[in-house]
Amino acid sequence: MSTTPQGIHSLAFRVMRLCKPSFHVEPPFRLDPSDLFVGEDIFDDPLAASNLSSLLSSHVNKSTDSSDMTFANRFLLHHPSDAMGFSGLLVLPQSFGAIYLGETFCSYISINNSSNFEVKDVIIKAEIQTERERILLLDTSKSPVGTIHAGGHYDFIVEHDVKELGAYTMVCTALYNDGDGERKYLPQFFKFVVANPLSVRTKVRTVKETTYLEACIENHTKSNLYVDQVEFEPAPYWTAKILKADELYPADNLSTGSGGGIHNYLYQMKISSPGSEQVKAKRSSILGKLQISWRTNLGEPGRLQTQQILGTPSSCKEIELQVLGIPSLIILDKPFSVHLNLTNHTDRELGPFEVWLSKNSAHEKFVMFNGLQTMALPAVEAFGSTDFHLNLVATKLGVQRISGLIVFDTIEKKTFELLADVEIFVESD
């Protein structure tokens, strides 16, 4: 892992990663005491099975005697948890191990004097170098280590929050006076690679005015990750609500499992800010970002923040028409009224308007205006709306369609065909 410098030096760096120990697992070759004396067929005889505990009691009591120094019972299965092989012991890290994005890298560094004389005025620096930047972790330039005696050492601990994937190099340097007074420079390099513990895949779908964000989080490590929090931070002008299939099982405090464990999260997003900010939100492709925090088996924390999640910008209509009410009973050749709402989504006043039913259609229309064929509407202020009623008449029985409603802005000379087909049922008198 380290690169040894050229030349002869009195000093040398040794680097050890500091991390939690792991559980020591013994091979679970353990036996149930009853298997040593009887076979499975003993349970075929109810009388023999009922006397099994008394037959084994003397042996079990002897095997659990603390004065028995032969450890003859070390392979006996006394409790179901014994089959897991946990010995109750912890093992210190035996290698540098895998380092993942979002963790805190902690290292114990020792600079050793292997010569037969002391070195003086030692200036030590420790840096982390990535593909993008170089970060200083320790610098004793202002307070050099006075002396490191022959066979002695100077130890220190450095920490760094890992926020970048790829190759890392820890650069340890020492500038010191050797035994003969010569000023020497010692550089040593320790390389490691940072991997991604999680992958986050997202899918965005918009239904009418509501946007849905699905996030799929997958564990790429070889151990369990216990998720503390998965929180979506929406961009300005947006609000987000997590949708859960079952409120009894919240999205937090779940284990992703090891090596490919997956959890899915679904968020409902809506535009929260009125006015011109609403238009900005609709036209922006930035939805927000995810904050994910977790812990490993022994509580070591990790935290990741995704990049901004992008979605397809919503098409921002200048005006929108909605049907608020239609009579439940519509009689042939008798007038009826339809209640409508016209909304202005722009930051300027629009109108006045003229409203009529389009005559350009491949099919004959059987719903038309009752009376004047054009209706006048007043101007609508910025981000405002107005309600109005259309007086219509149906000329044919059965299911008919109200379609092709034209709204014409008399000032900007724009024409909008807004109303989708609305079906009605026409009855006879």
TrEMBL record:
Boundaries of every Trafficking protein particle complex subunit 13 middle domain copy: 198-308
InterPro entries for the chain: TRAPPC13 (IPR010378), TRAPPC13_C (IPR055428), TRAPPC13_M (IPR055429), TRAPPC13_N (IPR055427)
Any Pfam family matching the protein: TRAPPC13_N
One of the record's GO cellular component terms: TRAPPIII protein complex
Residue span, Trafficking protein particle complex subunit 13 N-terminal domain: 9-194
Domain Trafficking protein particle complex subunit 13 C-terminal: 327-426
Family as reported in the entry's similarity comment: Belongs to the TRAPPC13 family.
Name of the molecule in the record: Trafficking protein particle complex subunit 13
Species for this entry: Gossypium barbadense (Sea Island cotton)
